[in-house]
Design goal:
It is a single chain. The chain has an 8-stranded mixed β-sheet with strand order 1-2-4-3-7-8-9-10, with helices on both faces. A hairpin with a 2-residue loop joins strand 1 (11-16) and strand 2 (19-26). It has helices at 54-57, 95-108, 121-135, 163-176, 179-189, 192-202, 211-221, 226-234, 242-246, 266-271, 291-294, 296-307, and strands at 11-16, 19-26, 36-40, 62-66, 78-79, 90-91, 115-119, 142-146, 253-258, 278-284. It has a single domain (8-307), classed as Alpha/Beta hydrolase fold, catalytic domain (Rossmann fold, 3-Layer(aba) Sandwich). By secondary structure, the chain is α/β, with parallel strands linked by helices.
Amino acid sequence: MGNPIYPSTWIRTLVWRDWRVSYLAAPSLAERPAGAVLLIHGFGACKEHWRHNVDPLRRQHSVFALDLLGFGASDKPRSTLPQEPLTPGSVRYGMDLWADQVVDFIVSQGLEAVHLVGNSIGGVVALAAVERLEQAGRPARGVMVLNCAQRALDDKRLRDQPQALRTLRPLLKAVVRQRWLTRRLFQSFATAGMIRSVLKQAYPSGQNIDDQLVGLLLAPAQQPGASEAFRGFINLFNDILAPDLLARLSTPVTLIAGVDDPWEPIQEARTWQRFACVKAFLELEGCGHCPHDEAPDATNPLLLAALSGNPQRT
């Protein structure tokens, strides 16, 4: 069966560390493409979440989009938490795993001077992958991050959290380690009604919340093993923070932020302009957590300008 959003000839599969990974490879419409763009989705999303961006981007670039391990049409192996011993066939979900996946994909596809674009957790993954590429001596041409995950519950941000939450934190950690509980919690989220409800928070304008969007998010969530990535993710209490990466990077970074994001406060995002690698910080009024899908007509020109090396400034 063909992909309902992209031509079936664009959808491909590769094997990475014995796991099947689904990805999109959309050829450029340009006679001489300006390079490659790799799109990295956020938590709970998939390559189809870039449905409104691939065609504009491929006018001048070859476009790739990955389903991170645990999401989309990629395999969904059993989760092993940091305090648990690794067992055959299991993985430790987190930024390191997904950044390794991105870098290995870039190398396997022979993508030189690639641009990375990431949304939410995909933004942190993109930044972590870019650091690895710098260290390997094959730096990316640039990275664009849309509403980057701030990871407010990370252990390293403990002093930023309310006292009540700090007090309850040990109990919270013990509870969310329980597989039976995370499975039931995930199942309560993996319904069309709940997904639509969450989207109404993420997309404050309501624009582009349609049956296609609900369906592309719901289908992977109903696949075997889908709750395992969820369990791994909600147990990421000590992982990479975006500001730590931005402090070390030399690759040009463009930050794009929907001002009305209910989960990643714009006030904190604005402070990231202090890092030398950040060449532009662009705000989209009236947009939430996923501006690329909520407001593609406003977002795509910003992405195209950044790809051209002339990011707009706001």
